[in-house]
Amino acid sequence: xxxxxxxxxxxxxxxxxxxxxxxxxxxxxxxxxxxxxxxxxxxxxxxxxxxxxxxxxxxxxxxxxxxxxxxxxxxxxxxxxxxxxxxxxxxxxxxxxxxxxxxxxxxxxxxxxxxxxxxxxxxxxxxxxxxxxxxxxxxxxxxxxxxxxxxxxxxxxxxxxxxxxxxxxxxxxxxxxxxxxxxxxxxxxxxxxxxxxxxxxxxxxxxxxxxxxxxxxxxxxxxxxxxxxxxxxxxxxxxxxxxxxxxxxxxxxx
Length: 254
Known about the structure:
24% of the residues lie in helices and 26% in strands. The longest helix is centred in the middle third of the chain and has 22 residues, at 116-137. The protein has seven helices and 14 strands. The radius of gyration is 17 Å and the shape is globular. The chain has one domain (2-252): Deoxyribonuclease I, Chain A (4-Layer Sandwich), CATH 3.60.10. It is α+β, with helices and mostly antiparallel strands.
């Protein structure tokens, strides 16, 4: 099975660049998209069904902002929007889809780039999201958490680890949270297969960052304990370019 995660930075913009043909060409079974930046009345749901995907959406109240969507060839047995906390759910950040033998969580973690108040919001989100997942763990054994985490984990995951300005996404408290996350029963699927490989998933639009590969790895696929030995491969598709992020695809025996 191929499970992909991708921050589209606008699903319509990515579509115009040929993204859906890429999805079909790569035979993606389940696709989690973040930053859909679209409202319900702007979607033709039948278009996605026509190409073989059940589709589920969690919209932000604010137009042109945030939002997540999950597309699947398999029909889920359960779909649940949000974490049950309006302060986050109004931003369209979490979408749960349960399948026969695993649960997929599609998450778009806040970025914290627009000021200290949003950094505090991000850290509170991380705490509450962790509690949400811990509750889920009590009911579900096999969990996959995919999405834009907006956090660099290790120095190898950023092109300039020596920087001292503590930008959002590379602050010590965020990285400490992600370190705890990967010691709490979740495993970084990419690092399971490539412990020492430098690979990025996001490049700034500024100053030709992508051609020079000056990027960050902030898009992750986390798998729970009983799934870690089922991961076959994880690939970052840097080209073709559909947004400032790239699709990350995990092949897993499920």
